[in-house]
Amino acid sequence: MLLTAEDDALAARPSEQFARAWLDLAVVSLLWGMLLGWLWSTCWTFFGDYTGVYLVQVAVVGSVMVLWLVRRPLVAFCSYLSRDVGGRAAAIAAVTIALFMLLLCIRPHDYRELHSPQQWAWLYPLAVQRVLLLMPLWGAWAMIILTQFCRPCERTEPAVAAFARGCGAFTAAALMALPLGLSFVYLHYLGWWRPAVPLAAALLGGLALCRLDGGLTRRALLASNFLTQLAFLVMYLVR
Question: For site-directed labelling of 154, which of 139, 213, 214, 220 has its Cα 20 to 30 A away?
């Protein structure tokens, strides 16, 4: 899988298997977001919020994120911040701490939201769950849309080249409806311009990363995933 597999394991698989990887990426990201929301809610049920600081919830959710599906995107993103091993380790630590601090700023209920549509209450989870659901969806779409503007080159891994061939313009446009549509539905009270932030991060940031690598690479795709998730989280927290 593009998000989790080791480079050697990825290279050992037939590249044709990744022609439809965009579908796996979208489904896994959706399920991943739902899992993160469920974890946060479960921790809240057991530990509550007696101190007003959601340390346990963030510790559990953040740890699961950086130890699994977010681990490789985070490492790829930090590899652009420093080339040497020591500097890269420091960058990973700093970015991880920053991610945890941002997660601490999310609250179960958003005071900026005046009301929730009661008829759709069963599809309208807590504010924090909506954010955790949308983050991986935006990250996945960032990887898909990048294949439309950055073409494979000599440095492109065979699996990534097959992934890019399988992501047509219609696929990228259709899958954009998921994070963009849910952002408008779940975060409509923030203003129509808010989804433009992760969208710009995916396009402009992804293109900049590809340019640094000289073309489309797995590292650029993963880093774009993390950058877009981070941009979405910051966008939500800005008052």
Answer: 139
What is the rounded CA–CA span in Å between residue 178 and residue 143? 14
Query: In this predicted model, what pLDDT tens digit does every residue of 193-204 receive, in sequence order?
Result: 889 999 999 999
**Token code pair at residue 165:** 């061939």
Per-residue DSSP letter, 216: B
Residue with tokens 């849309």: 145
E strand or H helix that includes residue 54: none
Q: What is the CA radius of gyration of the chain?
A: 18
Residue 69 has what DSSP assignment? T
Number of DSSP helices (H) and strands (E) in the chain, helices first? 11, 0
The predicted-structure confidence for 14-59, as pLDDT tens digits, reads as follows: 888 888 899 999 999 999 999 999 999 899 888 776 566 788 899 9
**Mean pLDDT for the chain overall:** 89
The most confident of 119-123, 149-153, 211-215, by mean pLDDT = 211-215
E strand or H helix that includes residue 238: none
Asked whether the whole model's pTM tops 0.85, one would answer yes
Q: What is the DSSP string of 106-162?
A: --SS-TT-----GGGGGG---HHHHHHHHHHHHHHHHHHHHHHHS-B-TTS-HHHHH
Give the containing element (helix H, strand E) for 70. Answer: none
Cα–Cα distance measured from residue 239 to residue 231, given in angstroms and rounded to the nearest whole number: 14
Specify whether the CB–CB gap between 216 and 150 falls below 8 A: yes
What residue type is 89 in one-letter code?
A
CA distance 155 to 41: 43
- Alpha-carbon gap, residue 236 to 239, rounded angstroms: 8
HSE of 170 in the Cβ direction (CA atoms, 13 Å)? 0
